[in-house]
Design a protein that fits this description.
This protein is α/β, with parallel strands linked by helices. It contains 13 helices and eleven strands. It has an eight-stranded parallel beta barrel with strand order 1-2-5-6-7-8-10-11, surrounded by five helices. It has a two-stranded antiparallel sheet with strand order 3-4. Helix 2 links the parallel strand 1 and strand 2. The structure holds (3S,4R)-3-hydroxy-2-oxopiperidin-4-yl beta-D-xylopyranoside. (3S,4R)-3-hydroxy-2-oxopiperidin-4-yl beta-D-xylopyranoside (XIL) binds next to loops. It comes from Anditalea andensis.
Length: 325
């Protein structure tokens, strides 16, 4: 039936996309999103630097609008992200708080944000990107590392604050290269074990999966299976696949390239399907259409990483995703 040809209906888990408040003003954007996806993640509007303008000074405008859109259209919201080294606001960093004040303010922040969306946001990335690929803790530019003797215990308490603010929300740890870097995966597993023995809540782990068409698919498949051995929920949280891997301005997105690309999507979805059904949570793409992607904006020439083209037409990658289900 036609319904089986729509990813959000065919999938036995949520299919998400990272979105921005601004783009929802476009009717084609909004229609494409609600037709094909069942979940959204704010690309940046729920990060600390965008919400937290000062102690007792919160800007809810964009986050509220995204949550309202999801409510109006029968979609879930995945919250991203409460504590990320890159998103501490400048006013907070400049204050140079001692560990007690640092934690007191972050606790209030978590309680305020998670509490506001209690029952409306089904899951949160509490901590994002705290480990290096080799399994060490990120130290450079990380305010948490600089403030606490035992940063992992601080993160553990953040999970506890989030749990207390909304006991129903699923709490995730999110990072990149989880399936590709055994060292990082090992560090995450140790953290999960420690959290369990010390009573810090953790429900799931997310792997961003900002990939290239050339990323080895066996490694992805084996890494996902290994992640699943934790018994936690598994989220593919920020999937996009670069095809212009040579970063060339003369790249041609030919039919052959599109087919290769579709196959990459298909095999990643298949690898996700291979983990136990009870651990599947969602696959979320990092953006909706090729006309707007952080890859083009940030450091690459034109890229084509998503399931829809600049005109919101379905691409072969969409068929690849669908066929992987
Ligand atoms: C990126 C967004 O796409 C940009 O628009 C933003 O300004 C910076 O962050 N890992 C993450 C995401 O967890 O939050 C990042 O998103 C991409 C890498």
């Amino acid at each position: 039936t036609a319904v089986d040809q729509v990813i959000r209906h065919k999938a036995a888990f949520n299919v998400g996309a990272a979105v921005t408040r601004n783009e929802l003003n476009s009717a084609s954007y909004a229609n494409t999103l609600k037709t094909h996806y069942s979940q959204i993640t704010a690309e940046y509007e729920m990060k600390m630097a965008h919400i937290w303008n000062g102690v007792n000074n919160y800007n809810w405008t964009n986050a509220d609008a995204l949550v309202k859109f999801a409510e109006d259209n029968d979609m879930e919201v995945h919250g991203h992200t409460l504590v990320w080294y890159k998103s501490f606001p400048n006013w907070f960093k400049n204050a140079n708080y001692d560990s007690a004040s640092f934690e007191g303010h972050v606790k209030t922040y978590i309680e305020t944000v998670v509490g506001r969306y209690k029952g409306k946001i089904i899951s949160w990335d509490v901590a994002n990107e705290i480990f290096l690929d080799n399994g060490g803790l990120r130290s450079t530019d990380c305010p948490v590392f600089k403030t606490f003797k035992d940063p992992v215990a601080f993160y553990g308490r953040c999970y506890r604050y989030a749990r207390e603010a909304d006991p129903e929300a699923k709490l995730f740890y999110n990072d990149y290269n989880v399936v590709l870097a055994g060292g990082k995966r090992g560090a995450m597993r140790s953290m999960a074990t420690r959290f369990k023995s010390e009573g810090y809540p953790l429900d799931g782990i997310g792997d961003q999966m900002h990939y290239m068409e050339t990323t080895n698919r066996n490694t992805i498949k084996n890494g996902l299976a290994d992640m699943a051995l934790t018994g936690l929920l598994i989220h593919i949280s920020e999937l996009d696949i670069r095809i212009n891997t040579g970063q060339s301005d003369n790249f041609v997105y030919s039919t052959t390239e599109q087919q290769k690309h579709a196959n990459a999507y298909k095999e990643i979805v298949e690898a996700y399907e291979a983990i136990p059904q009870s651990q599947k949570f969602a696959i979320s793409t990092w953006g909706l259409h090729d006309g707007s992607t952080w890859l083009t904006d940030w450091w690459h020439p034109k890229e084509y990483p998503l399931l829809f083209d600049d005109k919101f037409e379905k691409k072969l990658t969409y068929e690849g995703f669908l066929n992987g289900l």
